[in-house]
Amino acid sequence: MSITIFMLCLYLNIAYSDKNMSDVGFMFGGFFKLGGASDQELKNSNMSAQEIHTDGGLSEAGQVFYNLPLQFKNSNTTSVFSFSTTFIFAVVTTDPRFHGHGLAFAISPTRFIPGAQPNQYLGLFNSTSDGQSSNHIVAVELDTDQDFEISDIDDNHLGIDINSLKSANRSSAGYYNDRGVFRRIDLSSGEPFQVWVEYNSTNQKLSVTIHRINMPKPETPLVTLKRDLSSCFSEFMYVGFTSSSGSNSSHYILGWSFRMNGQAQEIHLSRLPDIPGLLDPNDMGGGGRVHKKILIAILSLVGAVIFLILIYGVVMIVRRRKFIQVLEDWQVLYGPHRFTYKDLFIATKGFREGQLLGRGGFGRVYKGILPFSNVQIAVKRISHDSKQGMKEFVAEISTIGRLRHPNLVRLLGYCRRRKELFLVYDYMPNGSLDKFLYRLPNNSILNWKHRFKIIKDVASALLYLHQQWVQVVVHRDIKSANVLIDNDMNARLGDFGLAKLCDHGNDPQTSRVAGTPGYIDPEIVHSGKSNTGTDIYSFGVLLLEIACGRRPVETQTSPEKVLLIEWVLDCWDKGDICEAVDSRLGGEYVVDEAKLVLTLGLLCSHPIASARPTISSVVQFLDGDSQLPDNLLDLIKSRNFGGWSGQASSSLSSNFPTDQTSIASLTFTEPFASSGR
């Protein structure tokens, strides 16, 4: 997101000490607004802005830095000078569930940070530079989105970042009152907050304090870090702000003061600019949530304008009654980014056959390039004759639209036009896993290293869905066609049209069998109940499919090899399970890994649900953190003819750790989306 500055009131005062050129300070009394102008408006402020990146309007990032470098240490010493800065900021959102990623105060060796990206990188780093000591960047992040990839503690925290987004120290946003009691604050509430960042060169301590603007600065800092910063700083550095948000949020810096070798000048609230729609100068001490602006805006409307708006609203409701009844109830509830049909039509060249990537039970998928941004997308167009189309559409939006994991396909947004439904995803240029397994020539066969990495990626995605997200997500259609491969050969699980959600400790049920033949848990056919165990079964079939390089059911082969599971089990019985490994690999595979994958495939696809390991156990086995159970022989033999033995069952719990989503603890609720593909 580009940091954009609308300057309604701006003054800048720079004072240099007669004693030392390093003793410098400035006061900035304007404000920065996220999203929309150019840095031409800063030309008289000794500050400048740079647009970093835009992603089809979905995510934006930018930087604003003070133009002049500041001396942070002498050339003849390594000690960093003391410094102090304070600023007032506000994060204003139009949708409380989608409020961008946050902003950061940054100290950088360059006036702009090259290569920085939006989203979780906050305009500070990118996937390559994050964590590199050569960055020489010290930042204080005000993070409003939780990202598991960088171990964020929550979606409302402060952190001290030293060359990395994995904070050296961090805390949930809040402050300590005079009695030492922690009081939480909401960074994205729209309320203005004041932040102090102070470094004491004597004790080498960096401290960060945040509080509401209508109260004195707390005595106890929220976050401190005792560390010698000399290796992080050059002699001269630049100070400024970076930010990352989207179309639903705006970030403001309402005032800023900085001082080297001294205390930053206090920002006088009475001198802050009057920003229409954000701050009411008469309410600066009233708690921050300024509701008067709504009342003033309503009272300022003249009768004629109100009348025209009402007439227009009535006309639109009459003309679009059917559309509103179908769409608006769930659109307000789930609300990801909405694309216009025109943009998608242009992006896919009118949904030409030449743009077609594939087709499935619920429609076709087209490749496209968004106009004006050149972002590549994949557009899923839901079939007109799909009886369950709307339910599946809502399921996919409500599920994947809120999930965040590097091994899940990212949903960018949606479009609804009459009775047509569209989902817009990140484009995966390498296509699906089944293409690599079955539709490429032998000289392009997927090697074992990539196969094992794909298996671990899908397992990581399932662990997130079953145990790490705020709700349990049962995917219900895990198969090679739904595993997408990105540019770096990382696997991403996609297609959540059949997904079901429930709270941890519960599990949904459905009255219909859902999934793809060959991957469906046989217990579903009898019970009609889907749960995390049914996903484990499908994942087990997928493990065998990847290792053996063949589909779950092959009719054009010898009778003993028709069913993949039975063939692998037969090879295991003969004492050479690796006989089932894809012969096209030519023996180029890691034997121990192949045996592990095939054995896990048999365990996960066990016909008895209680014999299957949880996904957390599977991940531990694949990572080498746990060993397969000692009673492995009993567990696998128990699948023959349904001969599940009580002895094997009783020993299961000691070998496969259970969790709150395990089969034994599940209860079932009404179906969320139920239909087969």
Question: Please, could you describe this protein's structure?
Answer:
By secondary structure, this protein is of the alpha+beta class. It folds into three domains: 3-282, Jelly Rolls (Sandwich); 335-426, Phosphorylase Kinase, domain 1; 433-669, Orthogonal Bundle (Transferase(Phosphotransferase), domain 1), CATH 1.10.510.10. The chain is 23% helix and 24% strand. The protein contains 14 helices and 30 strands. The strands form seven sheets. Strands 1, 2, 3, 4, 8, 15, 16, 17 and 19 form a nine-stranded antiparallel beta sheet that branches. Strands 5, 6, 7, 9, 10, 11, 12 and 18 form an eight-stranded antiparallel beta sheet that branches. Strand 23 and strand 24 (420-426) form a beta hairpin. Helix 7 (448-468) runs antiparallel to helix 9 (532-548) and helix 9 (532-548) runs antiparallel to helix 11 (591-604). The longest helix is centred in the last third of the chain and has 21 residues, at 448-468. The protein is globular. The relative contact order is 0.08.
Which characteristics define this entry?
677 residues, alpha+beta, Jelly Rolls, Phosphorylase Kinase, domain 1, Transferase(Phosphotransferase), domain 1, eight-stranded antiparallel beta sheet, 14 helices, 23% helix, 24% strand, globular, disordered N terminus
